[in-house]
Design goal:
By secondary structure, this protein is of the alpha+beta class. It has one domain (about 45-340): Jelly Rolls. About 25% of the residues lie in helices and about 15% in strands. It has 8 helices and 13 strands. The protein has helices at about 5-15, 40-45, 55-65, 80-95, 120-125, 140-145, 150-160, 240-250; strands at about 70, 100-105, 115, 130-135, 165-170, 195-200, 210-215, 260, 265-270, 275-280, 290-295, 315, 320-325. The strands form 2 sheets. Strands 1, 2, 3, 4, 5, 6, 9, 11, 12 and 13 form a 10-stranded mixed sheet that branches. A 3-stranded antiparallel sheet has the order 8-7-10, with no helix packed on it. Pfam families: PhyH. This is Phytanoyl-CoA dioxygenase family protein. Its cofactor is Fe(2+).
Length: about 350
């Protein structure tokens, strides 16, 4: 290559516009309900209260728009919950058999926080700071809870699109996670098309490190990690900076922090940008069994995150989808008790 051509190439690189730093969700692609002109009353006329919508949809959507979350009491049958947790206990007791992954937030696992269950001591698996990742792939009842009709019907209205479940996390103890917003870590093809469900697998006790959240915090200005609103290996700010910003921004806006003390079978569904976290555990023996699932829309999450270029294999319940895990096909639906439900 001649010197002239090399100089042209260098000059072209210099003159290319830098990638745009994303500092807010794209208003054109956010869910309809987040837009200023959203007419909830008109939209909700298509939902008549009944078996599939046993609540006032307009009332729930209005509450969601203002607060960034809704709570449904006694939404998930307790026998479904007991079956799911029984499967988790089986994995803990016979962990050497399973390849499913856990994330371990303990100092000694800093270098390898994500491991197969079979490679983690039972004492660690049975303790705090453990997240069981995508347990729903191994469990039929896990899928059915994840795509329960109450969750699907509400999120179908929020997205105005078919619902697709993205991932799940199971906890035995409180996460004690600092304040955060999920969109910074869980990203779909349209980042604003994200929501989560937090399902209580037992009654939540005040000393268990219960979830906390700031109603209305989904409307505050997004935090800049130094490279935009998503946290990754190019970020110059970290999750602690994120937490400090959110706490200060919520307090300056007069938003009151609330603690989630709900009963077994109750569920909280929250907006992608609701600021929330986990309180400290004040009784080390007190569990806080919970199941957290993240969702997107059909137009925003078309492929499994592990195989972005392949058409995923789908399971469908209640007119919503969840993808088969292409990395662990041998463990898909190994727990089939949920077939009878």
């Amino acid at each position: 290559m001649s010197v002239t051509n090399r100089l042209k190439g260098i000059l072209k690189q210099i003159l290319q516009p830098a990638p745009k730093r994303v500092t807010e969700f794209d208003y054109q692609t956010i869910p309809w309900i987040d837009k200023k002109e959203a007419n909830i009353q008109q939209f909700s006329q298509q939902f008549a209260p009944g078996d599939s919508v046993p609540y006032d949809m307009a009332e729930k959507l209005e509450f969601w728009k203002q607060n960034g979350y809704v709570i449904f009491e006694q939404a998930i049958p307790t026998d479904w919950i007991d079956m799911l947790w029984g499967e988790v206990e089986r994995v803990i007791d016979q962990h050497e058999k399973y390849d499913m992954q856990v994330r371990i937030d303990l100092p000694e696992y800093t270098q390898t926080p994500v491991l197969a269950v079979k490679d983690v001591p039972q004492s660690v698996l049975n303790g705090p700071y453990i997240k069981y990742m995508d347990f729903h792939n191994a469990s039929v009842v896990g899928k059915k809870i994840m795509l329960h009709k109450h969750i699907v019907t509400f999120l179908e209205a929020v997205f105005n699109d078919r619902v697709v479940a993205m991932q799940s996390l199971l906890f035995k103890y409180g996460s004690q996670q600092p304040t955060h917003q999920d969109f910074a870590y869980v990203v779909s093809e349209i980042p604003s098309h994200l929501a989560a469900a937090w399902i209580a697998l037992e009654d939540v006790q005040p000393d268990s490190g219960p979830l906390f959240y700031y109603p209305g915090s989904h409307t505050i200005r997004k935090f800049d990690f130094g490279n935009g609103i998503f946290f990754n290996n190019e970020s110059t700010n970290d999750p602690n900076d994120f937490a400090n910003y959110l706490d200060e921004a919520c307090q300056s806006k007069g938003l009151q922090r609330e603690t989630l003390l709900i009963k077994k079978g109750d569920l909280l569904i929250w907006h992608a940008a609701l600021a929330h976290g986990g309180n400290p555990i004040t009784n080390e023996h007190q569990t806080r069994k919970s199941y957290v699932c993240h969702y997107s829309s059909q137009n925003a999450y078309k492929h499994h995150r592990s195989e972005a270029n392949k058409e995923p294999e789908r399971y469908s319940y209640n007119n919503a989808d969840v993808f088969k895990n292409p990395l662990l096909p041998q463990e898909e639906d190994i727990f089939q008790g949920g077939e009878s439900l």
